[in-house]
Sequence to fold (417 residues):
Amino acid sequence: MPDSSISRFFEKSRKERLDIVASFASLSDEELDILQSDKGGISFDKADKMVENAIGTFSLPLGIATNFKINGKDYIIPMVIEEPSVIAAASKGAKTARIKGGFEVTADESYSIGQIQVLDVGTSAIQQINNSSNEILQLANSKSNTLSKMGKGAKEISCKEIDTPSGKMLIVELLIDVGDAMGANITNTMCEAISPLIEKITDGRTLLRILSNYSTRRIVKAKAVFEKEAVGGEKVVDNIILAFEFADNDVYRAVTHNKGIMNGTISVANATGQDSRAIEAAANAYAAKSGKYRSLSKWSKDDDGNLVGTLEIPLSVGIVGGIANVHPVAKVCTKILGVSSAQELACVMTATGLAQNYSAIRALATEGIQKGHMRLHARNLAAAAGAIPEQIDEIVQKMIEEKKISLDRAKELLEQI
Ligand code: NAD
Fold:
C-alpha cells in the first residue's frame, strides 16, 4: 500500500510532485497530461454546454495534501483552493494525527430527502398517504432503472405538518438511497413524478417538489487523536480546547471556525467536482441544529492528555453524476484519491476538514496565523528570487529574523550565499 507521508513534498519541483502523484495513484500518461496542461480542464465548448451565456473558463490552483491516513488507508488529497496555507495546514494536521493512527471516519449511506409541499388538504391526508406509501414508492422507483437494479432508490415516505402565517401545510418527504451520486436530479424527478398521485390521494394541491439540501441522512463522523507532545505539550492542548470553547459559545467566532473546516472540506469538493454550495448550506444549518450556531467540531483531551478532535457534518457528494464524470481534472482527482464510493469520498472530505481545523486552531492558540502566512510568503519570494530548494530555508529564516520580507531582500540574500 502506498505511503502518503511524503517527505518535503513542498520543496519538490512540479515534475517531481507529478511523478510522485502518478506513481501513488497509478495514473496513465493521458491522466498525467490532463494535470500537466494548464488549461484548467475544460474547453470553452464544454463550458458553453454547462452554463448559460458562457464567455470563458476560470482556473484555480490544484495542490496535494500529504500524510493522510483514514480508516487505516493512506491518501494523498487533491485540493482546489485559492487561499495560501490551507493545503500546508491540512498536510500538517494529518501528519500529527498519523502518529496516533490517523482519522477514524464513518459515513451514513447516501440517503437524499425530497420534499413535496401539499396545500388545501383535509384532516386525514397523512393517514391516506401512509396507506398508499407502497404505491407512491413504486411510482417513484419507476423513474430510475439504475437505482432500482442496484436495490437502491426511494425507500420511505413520511409526512409532517408545519405552521406558517398562511396556515398549516403538509410536507411529504421522500427518502431515497441515491447510491454513489449526489442524487439531486433523481430526487427532483421522483418528487415531481409522485406529486399528481399525492394530489389524487389527498385531494390537495402540491406546490414545491424539490430536494432538501439539509442532508441529515448523510452524516459523516470523523475522529482523530493528536499526541500531546506533537501538539506542543499540555499547555497548547489546553489552549486549543479553550479556543474551541470560544467558537462553540460565540457565533462570531463559530462562523470563522467553521469556515476553516470548510477550507479543507470544500477544497476537496472543488477538486472532485462536488456541489460546494449544497455542502456549505447543509453544514451551516447543521451547526445551528441546537437552535444556536455552534462549532461543527469538538475538541477535548483523553486520559493521557492527548488532544481529541471530532467533526460531524452532513455531506451530500457523489463519484458519479454532476460534473464528476464531465470535468477531466475532477475525474483525475477522484482517481488520485482512489475512492470507490460516495461514502468513502465523504469520509476523506470530513477528515480533511478536521485536519484543517486542527492546524488552524493550533496556530491561533499559539503563534497566531500571520507568522505561518508570512513564512509561506517569504518562501514564495525566495523561490521567485531564484533560490534553489537547499537555499530557501536560509533565506526565509533571515528575512523573518530581520522582519524584512520582500523580493529585493530575498535577491540580496541569495547573492550573499
Ligand atoms: P446526475 O443527474 O448526473 O445523476 C446521476 C446519474 O448517475 C443517474 O442517472 C444515475 O442513474 C447514474 N448512476 C450510475 N451509477 C450510479 C451509482 N452507482 N449510484 C447512483 N447513481 C448512479 O447527478 P445528480 O447526482 O443527480 O446531480 C448532481 C448535480 O445536480 C450537481 O451538479 C448539482 O449541482 C445539481 N443540482 C443540485 C440541486 C440542489 O442542490 N438543490 C438541484 C438540482 C441540481
Summary: Residues 61 and 82 are 6 Å apart (CA to CA). The radius of gyration is 24 Å.
